[in-house]
Amino acid sequence: METEKVKCLIIGSGPAGYTAAIYAARANLSPVLYEGLQPGGQLTTTTDIENFPGYPEGISGTQMMEDLRKQAERFGADLRFGVATAADLSKSPYKITIDEEKVIEAQTIIIATGAAAKYLGLEDEKKYAGMGVSACATCDGFFYRKKVVAVVGGGDTACEEASYLAGLASKVYLIVRKPFLRASKIMQERVMNNEKIEVLFEHNAVGLYGDNGVEGVHLVKRMGESDEQRYDLAIDGFFLAIGHKPNSDIFKPYVDTDETGYILTEPGTPRTKVPGVFAAGDVADPHYRQAITAAATGCMAAIEAERFLLN
């Protein structure tokens, strides 16, 4: 198998990966970045980004990632298509297999592989992507001011998203599969005490409908052991809050992760427990998951890599 030696390898191409590439390239680390399955990351599924500082008119996720990519290229980052399929972080230089056919031996690695929002698996979720279906209330909630939205989920994230959306929308339905909420007590109270939020327990969303975007959701309500009621509910937006899956599987034997799979780093830094291996962006962030926080940790990781190589 072909082998290549590099000083700094960046895996992933969202705001964290590209920002890391910009900083690493400017520090003459000659970074090599592999873009992964979804070049540009989750943001390429977001239509408009209006909360990233410096864009008063807003910008599309795809355009922003293209701009970051060009900026990294301008400073000499080597950006490549390819997916990291295996990792050996047991000793330096660390080995990452790309597309099962090439091994990169790296002195430092920045893991910026992101996370993927979990979906229900309905065909309609794909059909209405960017047209009423979202997995990020803080990204897209603003577009539903004074409109009616539904949030799917029963945990803390779902309650947080419902509460956030209640500050913008005229009405929020929280669609919960179980007869109870899994969220912490304080989050449950916040939802139950908010007059704009209506919780629909023992409900399943089985489809969406609408001509030019989401106009409603097909629901099934459980009524006792064997009975169910099917009905349609008019909504303008459909938000998924059933969790994210961090793309960390190949690194798990070597770095610490939480029970969901988020990579654990030293508090306030992108350092993992493996010297010279750093994690940035959503793969290590279960809390904020914003483009700006991902970009910030990408910057931190590149500075840490530069310092590590100087020692």
TrEMBL record:
It catalyses: [thioredoxin]-dithiol + NADP(+) = [thioredoxin]-disulfide + NADPH + H(+). GO terms for biological process: removal of superoxide radicals. InterPro entries: FAD/NAD-bd_sf (IPR036188), FAD/NAD-binding_dom (IPR023753), Ferredoxin-NADP_redctase_2 (IPR050097), Pyr_nucl-diS_OxRdtase_2_AS (IPR008255), Thioredox_Rdtase (IPR005982). The keyword Cell inner membrane does not apply. Binds 1 FAD per subunit. SUPFAM superfamilies: FAD/NAD(P)-binding domain (SSF51905). Keywords: Disulfide bond, FAD, Flavoprotein, NADP, Oxidoreductase, Redox-active center. Residues 7-298 form the FAD/NAD(P)-binding domain. GO terms for cellular component: cytoplasm. Its cofactor is FAD. GO terms for molecular function: thioredoxin-disulfide reductase (NADPH) activity. Its EC number is 1.8.1.9. It comes from the Bacteria. PANTHER family: THIOREDOXIN REDUCTASE 1-RELATED-RELATED (PTHR48105). Homodimer. Belongs to the class-II pyridine nucleotide-disulfide oxidoreductase family. This is Thioredoxin reductase.
